[in-house]
Amino acid sequence: MPIKVKVEFLGGLDVISSSVRQHKATLPYEEGEATMKQAIEWITHNLITDPKDTPVFIEDGTVRNGILVLINDTDWELEGMEDYVVENGDVLTFTSTLHGG
């Protein structure tokens, strides 16, 4: 069964997804088989509206510095980062900490 998650883009990061802050997403993986790395790849290809905006989100194959990543309101560094196994019902939040002035 595919994995259903909620993806949030906050802190102005929603501009990369047509200004939509919250997405209900169905990842095409079986539960217990998808890592956060795979989820990020899926998000990059399916939720970022314009491929030219990919560098705003991804750098060197991972989420770029300056973007706080939370998994169910917990810093992803405490959850294993890219190795975290995504579960049905997870909330994946990406918040830009870089603001213009």
Can you tell me about this structure?
With 101 residues, the chain is of the alpha+beta class. The chain has one domain: Ubiquitin-like (UB roll). 19% of the residues lie in helices and 35% in strands. It has 3 helices and 7 strands. Strands 2-1-7-5-6 form a 5-stranded mixed sheet. The chain has a two-stranded antiparallel sheet with strand order 3-4. Strand 5 and strand 6 form a beta hairpin. The chain is globular, with a radius of gyration of 13 Å. The mean pLDDT is 94.
Give the helix level as a range of percent.
10-25%
Structural class: alpha+beta
Give the number of helices: 3
Summed up, the domain count is 1
CATH superfamily: Beta-grasp domain
Q: H/E series, N to C?
A: EEHHEEEEHE
CATH topology-level fold name? Ubiquitin-like (UB roll)
Poorly predicted spans: none
Spatial strand order of the main sheet: 2-1-7-5-6
* Rounded average pLDDT: 94
Organism: Lodderomyces beijingensis
Modified residues (1-thioglycine): 101
Pathway: tRNA modification; 5-methoxycarbonylmethyl-2-thiouridine-tRNA biosynthesis
Subcellular location: Cytoplasm
